[in-house]
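QA checklist item 7 of 12: single-chain prediction sanity check.
[x] sequence parsed
[x] length recorded as 203
[x] structure emitted
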Amino acid sequence: MSLRERAKADKWERIRAAAKRLFSERGYESTTVRAIAEEAGVATGTVLVYGETKDTLLHEIWREEALPVLEKAVSTLPAGTFVDRCMHLFTPLLTHYASQPELARVVVKELPWLTGAAEEAQRPALARFLGTLARIVDEAKAKKELRAELESELAAGLAFSVYHSALLRMLSPLTKVPLAEAREGMRRGLGALLMGLGSRRSS
């Protein structure tokens, strides 16, 4: 790596760390690009080089930290039951968010509402995530674990909602359940979903 590349990487690391800290401490809405620049010790224009807007910057942080977790889960998806395969996909993300709950609250709250370039940038990852869930559903249907007439996208969305519910229960100050309890609740929720969507044999 050249000196220029090292300097660029160092600036991005400082900007990323500053943004994460301020998003967690002040909240997303109260954090400005200027504040991130001051915290990172760089010019405001430098921050905008790495993220054209605050939304883009939040997505870049998510992409760099959470996307590899998702990609690994997708690429190592094993054979097995519907519930076990969903757990394989969801658990690493749940664990990742549990490791930095303050930032995770910002991500979960803000990421679904991003617009413009940030929205377009996250579409491929979301499509891959939901596409993998639909594949799990299709393969469970082929094994007669789920009913053949089920709409795959609908069933995938229902499975995702079980994961999202577990994530919110873990992150919300009102419930704030430990990771292990959130994970177990997610497994029970997926099991209940299977009972509702399953074939006569599996139900």
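[x] summary fact logged: The mean pLDDT is 89.
[ ] second reviewer sign-off
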